[in-house]
Amino acid sequence: MSEEHDQDEGMRTEAPATRRVQVVSWVLSALLHGAFMSVAFLTPHTESEFDVEWMTEFESLERIGHGDFKEIVIEERGVGEEPEPEPEPEPEPEPEPEPEPEPPKEEPRPKPKSKPKPKPEPEELASVAEPKPQPQPEDSEPTQKPSEKFKRSGPSDLPDIKGYGPGNAVYTALVRNDRIRGTPLQEVVTHILKLVPDYRIALDNTDIDPVQDLDSMFMASARPQYIQHTFLAVRHRMSDKDMQERLARRFGDGLAWSEYNGIPIRDLIPENEHYQDPRKILLRPGMAVLTRPEFLGELTRNLPKDSDARLSEGRATLLDSIAQIEDAADPKTLALVSAMDIRVFIPGLGPRTFEGIALSVADVNNPHIKIDLKFPKETDATGFADACPDLKRRMISGQKNFMVRNMISNYLERVTCVANETYVTVEATYTAEEIRSVLGFASMVVPQPMVLSKLPKPPPLPAAAESDPADAGSDDLGSDETITSE
């Protein structure tokens, strides 16, 4: 126990600024691609914990990732001038559409003449102009039932996932990796996830691709400044045997599997004198969980009937609910983030307290970022929204580099801040290429705690005589010792 206590103390004192660094590391891993850039905009105080070299980098990143989707919709709908010139051309378009539908009706007998149906393209284009109200009911039908299981809050009616993290978690995040797969964002998101501490600890050298092999990730923490307090649950399509074999590539076969209430369980890392992490790995069909041992009872016991985390009748555990957490994401939603009781310093405004933060990133083609900020008082929300335009101007004018100033201006000009009682909703819409560029910058400043360099090294690759040459080759391609040596 004393050694573990010393290890924890070492985690606190090894680098004076690591507590804030680890907070940023967790936030980056939770928000992943785009979402974390919005949180960076809300937490610029973190730059004070870094050297000048880091401050210059973060200044260019903390102010990236905002725009306004509603304004685009309003511009598309702004056809209020059409009814004025319509009285004269009204008789003209009326006879034109009438003969067009008549010929296909009169000549439906020949099958090849069914092609004139696509001719009413103007009608189809009219429906395309309203794509979001029409596909929503179609897309929502298969996902509406599971999404109804989750409570919603705030003016944006975002799903509330904060109650599904064990240990009174203050940060929770859900990422739908399957919706990033095969998109322009896949490469850069994969690169960022492989830099995240939990990937380096558990999955380095396993040949598990965080986007290609994992369908979703749910993260939670009550103490995000400590790596060892992060809870992680991933959904995948591998068998338990395949997952166990892949995990064994990280530290070898020395970590034996046992059972906890019928659930396969294993230590995260082997015992060593340099780095300690008490967390365990649990396996359920299609899901792997990384958790602290004190959360095992909370995860596996039957939930009370009135529990907000209960998603089914009969016996239901928190693990059962977490297995369905990916359904909280609405169609096209890429990420959800919830946080509680956050106090940050905002340049020009001073310290501000947020009772809650709910964030979503949706639409991989045109990522739309939406954040509901909950303030203690309505006057606080109104003051923040009123100060938002001036805050953006100061962020832009504060950049001395011309290129950086123009880039930041391009992102911040699309930010909108709207107050609604005790809430402020911040929204922004960007292109996939713009988000990809932001993530490229973010990958260069993902904190890399030096303590991870003390992790045990992966075992040597199997010899050709012990395995098939083809298998040995694939293992060699999947290894990446450069990450663990950082």
UniProtKB/TrEMBL annotation:
Residues covered by region (Disordered): 76-164, 453-486
This protein's UniProt keywords: Membrane, Transmembrane, Transmembrane helix
UniProt superkingdom: Bacteria
Bias (Acidic residues) ranges: 81-101
Transmembrane regions: 21-42
PANTHER family: KERATINOCYTE PROLINE-RICH PROTEIN
Protein name: Uncharacterized protein
Lineage, opening ranks: Bacteria, Deltaproteobacteria, Bradymonadales, Microvenatoraceae, Microvenator
